[in-house]
Structure formats: structure tokens, C-alpha cells
Amino acid sequence: ATTRYEAEGSSATCDGTIDSNHSGFSGSGFCNTDNASGASAQFTVDAPAAGEATVGVRFANGGSDARPSNLVVNGATVQAPSFESTGAWNGWVTKTLTVRLNAGSNTVRLSATGSGGLANIDYVEVTTDGGSTEPPT
Ligand code: GCU
Ligand code: CA
């Protein structure tokens, strides 16, 4: 199953502002973090069972430099994805990451490691099949 978690959703946090000035986002806005190292967007995501999940991060980076980050799952840094320039702030792209989740509630945090902060973050989509009793389609 795939579930979308909007950056402006009630279970997400954004170290910055929820903006809507660059078109093409899903829902009512996107997270524009402060342009500072450590600025984060955090999502609380559910998994039906422990196991691997894919996390699709929809982002836009209209700057010319990539925006590096740490991916922190349940408090542990598991990857260091970098969000490349997408050419324009309304140029939304999805980057797919693979993580292990616990059964139940998990925190998935992107935390900037560069002074530019994160790219603008629209949502994450989490795909888990661990709870399925049917073969994948
Ligand atoms: C611009 C843009 C913001 C973006 C920011 C940045 O101000 O409008 O949406 O977050 O640049 O460089 O991070
Ligand atoms: Ca920003």
C-alpha cells in the first residue's frame, strides 16, 4: 500500500514555513525550511509490519546547488540523500529512498546538512507491502 503524507499535514513538522507560492504542489502547500543547517521536515508514518519500505520524497530545488541532508528514521541517521537542482522552484521531482520501518508509527526526518537548508518538500509517499496477504500486483 502507498500512503501520501503532506508536509503541511497535521502529523508533519516543518522548520520554516508552509508556502504555496510555487505552483505544482500537492495539497495546500509545501515545506520551505529555513536556509540553515539542521533545518528539518519530519513526517510521522505508519507501517503495517516491520520491514523495507520505499519513501518517495517530492521536492523542488530552484537553486543551482544541491541541498544535502540526513535521512533520520526513528532517531537514527540511515542515509544522506542530496536533493539536486530541479531547475526551478516549480520543478517538482520525486526521489525514492528505501528504508526499514518498524511496525506501527515511525518518524522519518529530513535534516539539512548544508547552509542552504532543505529543498522545498511537498510530501513523502510511503509504500509498504509488509501487511499484505495478497501477492504483489
Ligand atoms: C526562494 C524560494 C523558496 C526557497 C528558497 C531557498 O526564496 O522562493 O521557496 O525555499 O529560495 O533558497 O530555500
Ligand atoms: Ca528554503
Automatic annotation (TrEMBL):
Taxonomic classification: Bacteria, Bacillati, Actinomycetota, Actinomycetes, Kitasatosporales
Keyword Cell wall biogenesis/degradation: no
Keywords, in A-Z order: Calcium, Lyase, Metal-binding, Secreted, Signal
Residues of the full protein shown: 34 to 170 of 528
Major subcellular location class: secreted
Keyword Metal-binding: yes
Coiled coil: none
Ranges where the CBM6 domain occurs: 3-127
Cell location: Secreted
Family per record: Belongs to the polysaccharide lyase 9 family.
Organism this protein belongs to: Streptomyces litchfieldiae
Highest taxon above the source species: Bacteria
Protein's name according to its UniProt entry: CBM35 domain-containing protein
